[in-house]
Structure formats: C-alpha cells, structure tokens
From TrEMBL:
SUPFAM superfamilies: P-loop containing nucleoside triphosphate hydrolases (SSF52540). PANTHER family: ENERGY-COUPLING FACTOR TRANSPORTER ATP-BINDING PROTEIN ECFA1, HEAVY METAL TRANSPORTER. It comes from Natrinema hispanicum. Keywords: ATP-binding, Cell membrane, Membrane, Nucleotide-binding, Translocase, Transport. Belongs to the ABC transporter superfamily. InterPro entries: AAA+_ATPase (IPR003593), ABC_transporter-like_ATP-bd (IPR003439), ABC_transporter-like_CS (IPR017871), ABC_transpr_CbiO/EcfA_su (IPR015856), ECF_ABC_transporter_ATP-bd (IPR050095), P-loop_NTPase (IPR027417). This is Biotin transport system ATP-binding protein. It is found in: Cell membrane. Residues 2-233 form the ABC transporter domain. It comes from the Archaea. It is a peripheral membrane protein. Its main location: membrane.
Length: 237
C-alpha cells in the first residue's frame, strides 16, 4: 500500500500539494486526474521519495519512505511522462536489464525478468531491437517493461500515453488493468479519462494541489465539473 498522510509541498514558497491524504492498495487500479498544474506529477514524485514532503509523510507498505528510500524505490516502480528521458541503453534488452543489474542479481535471473517483462507488454523476443527505431507506443511499453523488471509491488505512471495512438493506449491500459488484477497497485496520472469506468477501480482528481474527488469512477465522474478534467462525451459508467 502507498499511503499519503497530510502531505504538503511547496516550490519556492508556492504551495503545490496541500494536505494530501490518500492510499493505493495492493491490486487497486487508480486513476489520478486533474488539469495541468494541479499537482499530479509532484504527488507521484513523493510516492518513491524523489521529493520530500514539507509536512506530512508517505508510507510504502507501512514504512515511511524517508526511513528507507531504497525499499521504497524497489517497491514503487515509476514510469515518467516522456519515455525517452528514462532510457539508459541503446537496445530494448539492455535497457530493461539495467535496473535488475543494479540490484546485483545474477545473469539468469536478469534474463528471466527481461523476458517476462517483455511478454507482459506484448513485446516478447524483441530484446535486440534499437530503442530509437521503435514507435512511440513501443517505447512506452519498453519504459513500462523496465519498471516491471524491478518486480515492484506498485507501479506509478505519469501520463504514459503521450505519442500513443488509440489502439496502443488501449492496449497499455488493458495491460495495467491485468497487472493490477494480479496484485500490483497501479496509480496512473492522466488528464484523459477515456476508458476509466471500465478499467479503473477508483478515480482521484486533484485541483490546485488538493484532492478534490476520490471515489469509484461512476461517482467521481459526476463530481468533476469545474475541475478542468477532460471527460469525453463517450465516457459512460
Ligand atoms: P501536473 O502534473 O498536474 O501538471 P505538476 O505537479 O507538474 O502538475 O505541477 C504543479 C505546480 O507545481 C505547477 O504550477 C508547476 O509549475 C509547479 N512545479 C512543478 N515542479 C516544479 C519545480 N521543480 N520547481 C518549481 N515549480 C514546480
């Protein structure tokens, strides 16, 4: 479980998160919605200690992140907004292996994890391909596979659909839903709520650094008026 307890954070004295309390359970698929600038990325960066709260605390599986940063980072996998920023190697296989290598695992275990992660994102057998030759959607999948290869108990993703067409977006969403069904807690920040009702367990909406809405998709969608969150006409619960 990732738990935020009254977390506040300011940049240059400007409050960006104010008294945020929420939790993401194992196996839950939670969408984090909100207009640009509402604080989603800042919130996600607190979930594995990339930022430290000014007040309040974040706990991962009961342990304060500040007490054990290494445990938090191995439990919470992060996928950032622009997958290109996250790649460290030229080929798919080398890139996904990088994290597990840093855990000091042996070669057989690293290879097993790379193979399994690529299977999970529907890219089995593509280890030797160059990342810069892949489509945007494939790069997003590689970024997700890189996080999965760390075998985190939670996966936190920040707008991972930039540059993906609708079928690729849908396919990644379905993968995330199936991972959460298998027990991974998934927190996905997006301003685009297509498919939420069908796939997510819960929607949290941020507004001006605060949690404005937190509930099942059907209830949450009814409360989004005025929060500048895009809800396509086709979205029904
Ligand atoms: P979102 O992900 O919802 O678009 P962010 O968390 O990125 O929101 O940003 C929330 C606010 O915090 C914005 O006003 C943004 O300009 C500001 N902000 C984010 N990161 C920094 C930073 N490193 N330094 C100063 N201000 C920042």
């Amino acid at each position: 479980m990732i738990e935020f307890r009254s977390v506040s954070h300011a940049f240059d004295d400007v409050p960006v998160l104010e008294d945020v309390s929420l939790s993401i359970d194992a196996g839950e698929f939670v969408l984090l919605a909100g207009a640009n600038g509402s604080g989603k990325t800042t919130l996600l960066r607190h979930s594995n200690g990339l930022l430290e709260p000014d007040s309040g605390e974040v706990l991962v599986d009961g342990t304060p992140v500040a007490e054990d940063l290494i445990a938090a980072r191995s439990s919470v996998g992060m996928v950032f907004q622009h997958p290109r920023d996250q790649f460290v190697a030229a080929t798919v296989g080398e890139d996904i292996a990088f994290g597990p290598e840093n855990l000091g695992l042996d070669r057989a275990e690293i290879d097993r994890r790379v193979t399994a992660a690529l299977e999970t994102v529907n890219m089995a057998g593509r280890e030797d391909e160059r990342i810069d030759a892949l489509s945007g959607g494939e790069q997003s999948r590689v970024a997700i596979a890189g996080a999965l290869a760390m075998e985190p108990t939670h996966l936190v993703l920040d707008e991972p659909f930039t540059g993906l067409d609708a079928p690729a977006r849908r396919s990644v969403l379905e993968r995330l839903a199936s991972l959460s069904a298998d027990g991974t807690g998934v927190l996905l920040a997006t301003h685009d709520l297509r498919d939420v009702c069908e796939l997510a367990d819960r929607v949290i909406a941020m507004h001006d650094g605060r949690v404005a809405v937190d509930g099942p998709p059907a209830d949450a969608l009814a409360e989004l008026d005025g929060l500048e969150v895009r809800v396509p006409d086709t979205t029904r619960c």
